[in-house]
Amino acid sequence: MTADLLRLLVHCSLWSVLAVGGNTVALTDIYHYTVQSQRWLTSTDFVVVFSASQAIPGPNGMALVMIGQKAAGVPGALIALVAKLVPSSVIAYAGSTWYERNIDRPRVRLARNALVPITIGLVFSATFVLAQQVDDRASRIILTAIAAAVTYKTRLNPTWLIAAGTVLGLISTFTGWNAF
């Protein structure tokens, strides 16, 4: 258990540093490590944990706390919580002060602009990992494609799409249709 706690501390700290704005950009690595490498969760567990952490109030990244609990019980959850919050908070505090003083420097603007496509690529990677685990039927793939198209083409709040997907899933389950 001590080895699991140490691995959890190191990896959650690294993810915290990588994902100052949220765990979505590190999701691919989190999935690979927790599901494929350590086998702390199944693919289904991972999707449930990530989805639940996005739905409940609190800081972004609480999925790591749930993963920590699955890996090593309450001590794992506490280690993951501290490892998630402390490194990114320290970097955000120190970095914001430095950034405000240097915001007009050309290299700072260049670095900020260079991070945009990297972040977009990491978000697409995370989307692909989640979709691979969930979209195992044609109906789910079509629903995901429709939601992506609506999100891309309109200004509709994605919360409405999540609500619509939830309603479709409930109807599908309660009617015995099981399409989603």
**Strand content of the residues, in percent?**
under 5%
Shape: globular
Assembly state (oligomeric): single chain
Radius of gyration: 19 Å
Class from helix and strand fractions: mainly alpha
Keywords: Cell membrane, Membrane, Transmembrane, Transmembrane helix
Pfam family, one: Chromate_transp
Membrane topology: Multi-pass membrane protein
Family: Belongs to the chromate ion transporter (CHR) (TC 2.A.51) family.
SSE layout and pairings?
Layout: H1 2-18, H2 27-37, H3 43-55, H4 63-102, H5 106-134, H6 138-153, H7 158-174
Helix pairs in contact: 1-4
Structure notes:
There is one protein chain. By secondary structure, this protein is mainly α. It has a domain at 2-114. 79% of the residues lie in helices and 0% in strands. The chain has 7 helices and no strands. It has helices at 2-18, 27-37, 43-55, 63-102, 106-134, 138-153, 158-174. The longest helix has 40 residues, at 63-102. The chain starts with a helix and ends in a 6-residue tail after the last helix. The model has no long low-confidence stretch (mean pLDDT 89). Keywords: Cell membrane, Membrane, Transmembrane, Transmembrane helix. This is Chromate transporter. Its main location: membrane. Belongs to the chromate ion transporter (CHR) (TC 2.A.51) family. It is found in: Cell membrane.
